[in-house]
Amino acid sequence: MYKLDKTAQDALNKIYTQFKSASEITVSAPKYEKITIDYLITDGLLEKIDASTLNGWVYIVRPTHEGKLAYSEILKQASSKINNFILQGETIMKEEYHHLTDHGLAMPDFICGPKSDQWFSEISIFNDRTLVNHPLHDQIENVCKNHRNQFSPHENMMGYLRALAEDDEFFEKTEQRKDAINMGFNKLPSNSEQLLRELLNSSNPTDYLAGKFKDLSNKEDNELRGIIRELKSYGYVDVLWADNLPYHVTLNNSARTYYEHLAEYKRKNAPTNSATTTPQTINNYYGSTNVINAPNDGAVIVAGNNNVIDFSYNKAGDIVSEIESSLNDESIPSEERETAMELLSEIKEKITVQKKPSIIKSAFVGLKDFLIGIGASSTVAIIQAKMQGLF
User: Residue 105 has what DSSP assignment?
Assistant: First the structure.
């Protein structure tokens, strides 16, 4: 990733756009600042040809491999896409402008055509993917959906795009959020965690999420949409909308592994200076026991009645992953596989919230008994072998 300030990015963008039709170009004042061009040359993003015979500050420059890579990254940035939308809009408003010359018709001039329709469609996708947390998101969405029925949709959209182009603060914060996501786990608020868990447990996330909007007050509706925006902004889900309701929901891998990362997050943020004894006595098949949370490997030590059981939640989570992989390879009916996956999901949740080892063991046993009944012998063998080392 090339970290360039906005001035350098704008200069590189303009120059490499010209390289599409020329192998070398001349750059000079007042269009470019010398210090900016010198920086790009020193950084290897431009190659300067000898311009000593030219008067004043004038360079002849060529593209470089590093410069092409930096240019391609710039094109991926939201600010570049917005500027391209503005340029496209200016062209469309000229090429697809219709002026009615029939004096018998009382209709205003209008802009309409295939390029216009595609322009609004591309902006709608960009808005849904990039601007979910921006104050103009809903206004842009409304124009995109209803542009054929509005009086001046192109002028309105161009106003929104120009406002976005000047909103450096929003996109800087978005990049900071992306960096934070790439650097580590982001714990969700409890209401967002709850919706994510419900979607993961649902057999049809799209129908489930659409059903959540039934009979909501305005406040509840806004809260639900805010939670969805948060899940989207962190990359846990993708949601496509129609008639202001979700019509396609995709749960990304980061959503499916959220609770594994949450367990690791809790482990890393737990006190590590000493073991903590739970102030309660538990009566189970180990006898009368005390549970001690050990600081390493997400483990607990169950001790009492001459029993000492060292239980690792992290290892239990790894076993769940192995079982899930094995289930996907089993030749069993889809309905039975779905039921088994639901049982496995419940085990995973018990591990995440660190239920007592006895409860987790009982859940594993229940899953094993179910798999025996449907003939999933390979997975049964894995459960039996792994439980011996876990409990």
Answer: -
CA distances from 313 to 201, 257, 269, 323, 355 (A): 21, 15, 15, 15, 9
For residue 275, what pLDDT is reported? 43
Beta bridge partners of 248: 240
Percent of the chain exceeding pLDDT 90 equals: 14
- Using the Cα atoms of residue 30, residue 34, residue 37 and residue 39 in order, give the sign of their dihedral: negative
* Global confidence as pTM: 0.40
Band (272; pLDDT cuts 50, 70, 90): very low
Of the options 3.30.300, 3.30.1380, 1.10.10, 3.40.50, the CATH number for the domain spanning 6-75 = 1.10.10
Residue 118 has pLDDT above 80, yes or no: yes
DSSP assignment of 312-381: EHHHHHHHHHHHHHHHHHS---HHHHHHHHHHHHHHHHHHHTT--HHHHHHHHHHHHHHHHHHT-HHHHH
Q: How far apart are CA 134 and CA 88, in angstroms?
A: 22
CA distances from 368 to 46, 270, 312 (A): 64, 32, 20
Report how far residue 82's alpha carbon sits from residue 327's, in angstroms, rounded to the nearest whole number. 46
Q: Which residues pair with 238 in a beta bridge?
A: 250
- Is the Cβ–Cβ distance between 288 and 303 less than 8 Å? no
* 247 phi, psi to nearest 5 deg: -120, -5
DSSP string, 281-329: EEEETTEEEEEEE-SSTTEEEEEETTEEEEEEHHHHHHHHHHHHHHHHH
Residue 56 pLDDT more than 70? no
Question: CATH assignment of 184-256?
Answer: 1.10.10.10
Asked if 118 and 84 touch (Cβ cutoff 8 Å), the reply is no
- Residue pLDDT, tens place only, 76-112: 778 778 888 998 899 988 888 776 655 555 555 667 8
> In whole angstroms, what separates CA 237 from the centre of its chain?
6
Question: What's the CA gap between 378 and 78, in Å, rounded?
Answer: 49
Neighbours of 333 (CB within 10 A): 10
